[in-house]
Request: fold
Amino acid sequence: MTESVRPIRHLTKAITWRIIASVTTVLIAWYFGLPPKAIGLVFVADLIIKFVLYYGHERLWYKYIKIGLRRKDES
Reply:
């Protein structure tokens, strides 16, 4: 039997990672000289689209891929 992980853990990981990654995207866009309005639009699109993709990816891995997990009786 594997350890129990509630979906809130995946949601929290997705949110914190998206903040880090989206700020990185904004800094890259700023460095390359995009206008402020474009940077804002890129930030919002990046945050929403990649958040949904990351959360789905995280849940699929948790549900279907057991690589690297230990059973409670193995620890």
